[in-house]
């Protein structure tokens, strides 16, 4: 039954004859007496960790490694490093985030003098940059002998020429220990695009660039701990052998762990949460994935500091179709968040986020943060190389339940007793290039401020309060209403690329 002023969240979900997705609902506008700049996006990730942006990157091997985690933490969110790797590899990723120095690349891509111009073009196509340091043997922490930039190779037709023949040898370098301000000044005076950082023996230890210095100049919203180090999360499984992984991650300074289970309300996860809280109490624990109030209560009783909500709403997830188990994400977030609220435990809406409006709806239904996979997968900072299909620049994106990911170790989040029989609950695919995370997060943040303004609330906390009190009103959307709310009745139109404006600005 419709109402002149919409329905409260309780009326909407408790009277609905079926479960609801984000697209099934819409928020009613509120009174505006403030500017978008007045909107506060601060929120809680866990009981003890706060963020300035409600954004978390998914622990997927095509989404989050150290570059993603660094960029997101600098901008007020947090990244969760995947565990489709060895313990040492995951720990190394965490350490790179923890020891990050603002504006400096600690693991630059390097080549040797024996590489060719073709290698430079390949790197440019795959990674989008071409200023490459040249070291004696093509590895980091060996003697720097040259630099190759676009100017060195742009007019060279013979791609088989060795870099020793074209590289610039007269370099401006900085000594290890230089500050960001000093590096910026040195770049400004030298008019160079890249600044290699070397130790006392001339060995390459880091690299910075004019572009990175511009991007990383000021990040007042960075997610840092008391020691002023960037915070980072990491995923683990419920298997007993991952207790060794947990111990290593704790030693590396991980801030929070996500226990990665497709269906998180299980005895193995309960036991893992209790073990972590006993042996590593300084580390916050996110439990999940779950979709019901009862599941939320069970994980909170076990000691979870936050909950991850979602079974099957992701763009590459087929759990609901294959397993016939799960829940529509809107309904899942509403009921799980309401149960967790009684205990002061935040929830993360995981999956089904592709546009700003879905972030807004997740927060309005009680989520404190959203976890993004496909939305972040096509950025420069996500793992993997760019490829081209029909002239479109793409990156691989795969579900952790896809056959590809399971072969690499992703089946640890599922109860697969027979490793020879794998039942995929996800797919592999491609997502379009979305530029860099600095521009993307700026775009998402500004759009979210505008959405909160339209709803007449000044903060995420105020949004939650308005939803709980019934002041925030909702309506159901019929299929016709959903169609009306999108582009329609045009002969043709150009689909806007929301991120191209950011890249070109």
What does this structure look like?
This protein is an alpha/beta fold. 34% of the residues lie in helices and 16% in strands. It is built from 20 helices and 20 strands. It has an eight-stranded parallel β-barrel with strand order 4-5-11-12-13-14-15-16, surrounded by seven helices. Strands 8-9-10 form a three-stranded mixed sheet. A three-stranded antiparallel sheet has the order 17-18-19. A hairpin with a 5-residue loop joins strand 9 and strand 10. The radius of gyration is 24 Å and the shape is globular.
Please give the CATH class of the largest domain.
Answer: Alpha Beta
Helix segment tally: 20
According to CATH, what is the topology of the largest domain?
A: TIM Barrel
Look at the structure and name the CATH superfamily of the largest domain. Aldolase class I
| Cα end-to-end separation | 46 Å
User: Which spans of ≥5 residues are poorly predicted at pLDDT below 50?
Assistant: 500-505
Count of individual beta strands? 20
Radius of gyration: 24 Å
How many domains, in number, for the residues? 2
Helix content range: 25-40%
At CATH level 2, the architecture of the largest domain is: Alpha-Beta Barrel
Secondary structural class = alpha/beta
Looking at the structure, what is the overall shape? globular
Q: What percentage of amino acids are in beta strands?
A: 15-25%
Oligomer: single chain
Report the average pLDDT across residues: 87
Main β-sheet description: 8 strands, parallel, barrel
